[in-house]
Amino acid sequence: MHRGLSKSGTLWERRYRAAPIDGGTYFPSCCRYIELNLLRARIVRHPREHSWSSYRAHALGTTIGPLLSSHELLDRIGRNPDQRHKEYRALFRTALDDGFVDGLRAATNGGWVLGDERFEQQIARALGRRVAPLARGRQPKADRRQLNLL
User: Fold this and answer.
1) Most CB atoms closer than 10 Å: which of 69, 90, 113, 132?
2) pLDDT of residue 150
3) For 101-122, what is the mean pLDDT?
């Protein structure tokens, strides 16, 4: 309980949102998306300028504290630390695809899976529920006729 505000729950932000992602395909892009949040908010001009950005550790090798650890998928992008830093910096030389950004936001806000069809099916089986939104709108007339024939 926030005594001064007579409220309970998170103090600074809205509720936590997350989505399962296909790490092999989407993890580097998700890292880029997170690292670039401060640029989109116009707080910094480059992610290395923020002292708590994990970019400094992954791209430059800077130690920023005990809370950050390496990730297996990032460890795979290079044979040694220098090569990993170089490859991580290279990820930022191209802009994120608008389709990816839209998909990531939709997955995160809706609690849907972000991945290919195989990954969606795998997670759906594991959870025993739908992991992607239904198609919007009415079915085309031809599809409705086919359903009536069955």
Assistant:
1) 113
2) 45
3) 92
Say how many domains are in the chain.
1
Domain residues for the domain of 68 are 23-127
137 in any annotated domain: no
Distances (CA, A) of 101 to 9, 32, 33, 48, 131: 28, 10, 8, 21, 18
User: What tokens does 7 get?
Assistant: 């409220």
21: Cβ contacts below 8 Å, ≥ 6 apart: 27, 30, 107, 113, 114, 115
The pTM of this model reads 0.74
Domain presence at residue 132: no
Q: In angstroms, rounded to a whole number, what is the distance separating the alpha carbons of residues 57 and 76?
A: 15
Residue identified by tokens 């399962």 is 20
Query: Do the beta carbons of residue 57 and residue 75 sit within 8 Å?
Result: no
The pLDDT tens digits of the residues spanning 14-60 come to: 677 788 999 888 988 999 999 999 899 999 999 999 888 899 999 99
A 10 A CB-CB count for 24 gives 12
